[in-house]
Specification:
Blueprint lengths: L2 H11 L6 E8 L11 E6 L4 E7 L15 H13 L9 H23 L1
Parallel strand pairs: 1-3
Antiparallel strand pairs: 2-3
Helix pairs in contact: 1-2, 2-3
């Protein structure tokens, strides 16, 4: 399955088919807001448009990461930001951090379920 097909698959599983997503599966770290990030999403929830960038696996420096890079989990994580966008980035730092933690836990749970 190609990376684009994987994105479409998870987009459908997460019921995000009504979103127009521009997907960059091999982005350079210099294109990221956080150059140490593995993935990022920017979006407009009103018109349901988003751009997802996942860092090019060849550019990942494992020693700069807290945990090993996993393309699919990163993709799921970024898609979950869209699913929970109305709770995300609302100016409440504590809530945003908590939502981000929930997104990470859900992405890990989806990957664990897929492995079984």
């Amino acid at each position: 399955m190609t990376k684009l097909e994987l994105c479409k698959c998870w987009q459908s599983k997460l019921r995000l088919d009504d979103w127009q997503i521009t997907f960059y599966p091999e982005a350079k770290s210099t294109e990221f807001i956080d150059p140490y990030g593995q993935g990022e999403v920017s979006y407009n929830e009103v018109i349901k448009c988003a751009t997802i960038r996942i860092v090019d696996e060849n550019c990942v420096n494992e020693k700069d990461l807290y945990k090993p890079f996993n393309f699919e989990k990163t993709l799921i994580h970024e898609l979950l930001h869209l699913k929970l966008c109305l709770f995300d980035n609302n100016g409440n730092d504590l809530q945003s951090r908590y939502v981000h933690q929930i997104i990470e836990e859900l992405a890990n749970a989806f990957m664990e379920e897929k492995r079984q």
